Amino acid sequence: MVRTVAVIGAGPSGLTSIKSCLEEGLEPTCFESSEDIGGLWRFKEHPDPGRANIYQSVIINSSKEMMSYSDFPPPAHLPNNMHHSQLLLYLRLYAETFDLFKHIVFQTTVVSVRQRPDFLVSGQWEVETERTEGQRETQVFDAVMVCTGHFTQPHLPLNDFPGIEEFEGRYLHSWEYRSAEGLQGKRVVVVGIGNSGGDIAVDASRVAEQVYLSTRKGAWVVSRVGAGGLPGDLVGTSRLDKLLQKLFPSWITRMMENNLNQSFDHRLYGLQPKHGFFAQIPVVNDDLPGRIISGRVLIKPNIREIRGSSVAFEDGSVVDKVDVVVFATGYNYDFPFLPSGLLASSSHRLSLYRNVFPPGLARPSLAVVGFICNLGAINPLAEMQARWATRVFKGLLTLPSEEAMLQDIKRDTSTLQNRFACLERHPLQVDHIPYLDSMAEELGVRPNLLGLLLREPGVGLRVLLGPCTPYQYRLRGPGQWDGARQAILTQWERVAQPFRTRMAAQPESRTRASCSLRLTLTLSGAVLLLTLYTRHSLSSLLSHPTGLLYKMYSPSETMWGWK
């Protein structure tokens, strides 16, 4: 029977894994190689190889409500898209609230994880660690949770760039980038247009003489600021939106791309990719279009070769006197402390059942948590994985046979290859809501939408038509949280709070427009519900529908402080 669990890494995935162990009555010991929690989100001026790192200007792409843990809403005063230092504060509050620090051993690196000789019977692991001072120790654990992430091993494909070894300037990977300090007056080429490449190009362009952003395939660029100034990931990310995308994929894709091109024409700006919007994670950047239109960032095609200090591109253009090349070319993944062959590959992906369990283990006592990416926040996915894994450890949930798991991995890989572009560089990608729901279904925590609409229509409508915030997965089942309902009902209030730094008067015309909008949404919602449910089931809802249907999709005027 599993009792002791080794958790490797005290970043966001490691912290929620510790908490999930405690919820199931397990005894976690977390080994963290650095001196503090936070993982990727703790800025280090001088990071050590093998550890994740960020640059000074990083703002999180996901809004606070979407990236929060399911039973720990973010403080209302925090901005919706936090600076990395504020996200670290949230993680620290989480660890303090649930008393996680006493389970963490800092400045201790896991150097090897080995199956015990009696693994077929016990499922136990020998975990060897090394302290900063050099002392080594081996301990036995009933289970292991690997929470080291996938931003630790820079991918630097120098062979793809002939002449780079003779480059007269300086080149570096984005992992090494800290700030624009030292780039004043320089000519900078950034290679790669993922989120890091876009951020670094913008950051450098504020001081550099000129920045060139080189991309092979282009990218869709979205802003953190969505319709009406709301956080972009709170709009169009409901369960109903996901259903419409599934039913009408081509139409929804075209509509999304048309909306993006109304903000700025991606073809005109040299960014238009060949793939559709949902086929690859977009670049989240509020400033890139402005830096392009001002000429501070010039979009270029792929590099053909480098000659001395000159960079030649595939379209025949050449930029001379280049001082710095920054490779924002992603990361490799590696688990050097695990037995070789334990995490076999399936195409470009690790062979992990549900992206968590190696299928070949005789005992399911090792789980990988947070090794995943999606169009959305990682924290809720990692938390769901940890909740699921700990229930498997305890024997409360049973995995399929090895053959069935391998078949599932094969089907999943095939689906992803057809669904997403550039899978080789993004082998960890999943669909946010479907992935969460599939695991929640096994856990018994998937929200009962029909039941909610009948019993608590206020909550049910928000779950169906509002953003799919993590609190939905604490309404029922194992780990049910009494505060989940209130967290859903008040999520828009927490969104509004950071904006209340100056209360602007509401124009009279806005009042009339808001009344019309309320009436339209109320009538539309009533028709929808009448179509789906009987008059008897709706009697309590229809007695006071005004304001309810409006608030579940966007903040009310009272919330913004207009009345």
From TrEMBL:
<dbReference type="InterPro" id="IPR050346">
    <property type="entry name" value="FMO-like"/>
</dbReference>
<keyword id="KW-0503">Monooxygenase</keyword>
<dbReference type="GO" id="GO:0004499">
    <property type="term" value="F:N,N-dimethylaniline monooxygenase activity"/>
</dbReference>
<keyword id="KW-0812">Transmembrane</keyword>
<dbReference type="GO" id="GO:0005789">
    <property type="term" value="C:endoplasmic reticulum membrane"/>
</dbReference>
<dbReference type="InterPro" id="IPR036188">
    <property type="entry name" value="FAD/NAD-bd_sf"/>
</dbReference>
<keyword id="KW-0472">Membrane</keyword>
<comment type="similarity">
    <text>Belongs to the FMO family.</text>
</comment>
<keyword id="KW-0521">NADP</keyword>
<dbReference type="InterPro" id="IPR002253">
    <property type="entry name" value="Flavin_mOase_1"/>
</dbReference>
<keyword id="KW-0285">Flavoprotein</keyword>
<dbReference type="GO" id="GO:0050661">
    <property type="term" value="F:NADP binding"/>
</dbReference>
<dbReference type="InterPro" id="IPR020946">
    <property type="entry name" value="Flavin_mOase-like"/>
</dbReference>
<keyword id="KW-0256">Endoplasmic reticulum</keyword>
<dbReference type="GO" id="GO:0050660">
    <property type="term" value="F:flavin adenine dinucleotide binding"/>
</dbReference>
<comment type="function">
    <text>Broad spectrum monooxygenase that catalyzes the oxygenation of a wide variety of nitrogen- and sulfur-containing compounds including xenobiotics. Catalyzes the S-oxygenation of hypotaurine to produce taurine, an organic osmolyte involved in cell volume regulation as well as a variety of cytoprotective and developmental processes.</text>
</comment>
<dbReference type="GO" id="GO:0034899">
    <property type="term" value="F:trimethylamine monooxygenase activity"/>
</dbReference>
<dbReference type="GO" id="GO:0047822">
    <property type="term" value="F:hypotaurine monooxygenase activity"/>
</dbReference>
<protein>
    <recommendedName>
        <fullName>Flavin-containing monooxygenase</fullName>
        <ecNumber>1.-.-.-</ecNumber>
    </recommendedName>
</protein>
<keyword id="KW-1133">Transmembrane helix</keyword>
<dbReference type="InterPro" id="IPR000960">
    <property type="entry name" value="Flavin_mOase"/>
</dbReference>
<dbReference type="Pfam" id="PF00743">
    <property type="entry name" value="FMO-like"/>
</dbReference>
<keyword id="KW-0274">FAD</keyword>
<keyword id="KW-0560">Oxidoreductase</keyword>
